[in-house]
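Possible regression after last week's pipeline update?

I re-ran a chain I had predicted before the update to compare outputs. Posting the input and the new output here so someone can diff against the archived version. Not blocking, just want to make sure nothing changed silently.
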Amino acid sequence: MSYTLPLLLFYNRQVNFIHARFLFESIRVWQDSEEVEKGGKLMEKKAFFMAAIGTGFAMAVSTVMAADTIKFGITGPHSGNLASYGVPTVNAAKIIIDKVNAAGGINGKQIELLIEDDQCAPEIAANAAKKLVSDGAEVILGGICSGSTIAAMPIFKDAGLLAISPSATTDSLTYSGKYPNFFRTVAPDAVQAPPMADFALNKLGAKKIAIIHDKGDYGKPLAEGAKKRIEESGKAEVVLFEGVTPEAVDYSAIVQKIKRSKADVVIFGGYHPEASKIVSGMRKKRLKTIFLSDDGVKDDTFIKVAGKNAEGVYAAGPQDNSKNPIAIQARKEHKEKFGSDPGAFFDGAYAATLAILNAIDKADSTELAALKKVLQSEMVDTSVGKIKFDEKGDAVGVGFSMYVVKDGKFVLAD
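New output (post-update):
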């Protein structure tokens, strides 16, 4: 026992319930041994008890070995209309984690992926979060859409899990102080809405602007931010401000309102499925009104769905990282591993994964307080630049660029 106990306590550092389980098993079989003795069997009680200790210890070590991985949870849309946002995030994590595991893992532990599809639907996201927690996730990459992220965050907060999103931009996720466990590698809406409005005013010279949004936690606040910026500027008039119902079959009513408003520019807050239908409806009515949107539209799926109607559409998106050597290498690896170019928010997801793993390595822990200390104090080289996080959880130094669809591709706008 003099050698067994220290070894057991070492394993107890990894899994704190093992010592208790070991003692429970030993006491249980000691009690059983009394019954054996009463039954007239020949086994000596002491020998039986030592055998029980061996059995209990073996069970304890087995439990440790089975749990000796870092469980890395990922949540986002992996099916449905918005899968093009979530799949690149999973791919980014796989690229990095496969390399880390092949090199021996972190602190001697392999990283185990736990992946849950939330379809960017709040009610599904809450269940996905509960599943990740029950499966033992220790850190979270995600969510992706703001509404689903808001639904999941109370669950991750209660479980004490760090969550880093590559794409959830709603201001309240960091500005409200409700989620001290939430971080992101994308700038918030407060940083996105002003350049969208300024681009419409100063680059496009708009005098009449229609602002449309999807009524959601992402699109509506973004639209409100743009509206405020335009009104404060005094350079243009907001001639229409209205929400539309997501996933509607027909948007002809809002197209007609845009036509009647005689707007020079439409600013849309929301995601690509609605944007593609609205802009296609506008072009069908031969409206030449410029369409400008957000990073929820700056996605190749928008171009595929809208087709030729996507030409000339402007969209804000995460800053251009095309000259970042880590982003260049990451995109090359994606092409080699998955046979395609990465999609939306890939750079942010790659950066988030690097930040999470660096924090685990430096902290030698997955405890929230230890991870936060690293994330908020140490710079880390990523695909979105050399970053650390402020006290709210926002990455310092990230921002937005404006893009335009030209010849079927999003390129930097002049």
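Follow-up from reviewer: compared with the archived run. DSSP finds 15 helices and 14 strands in the chain. Marking as no regression found.
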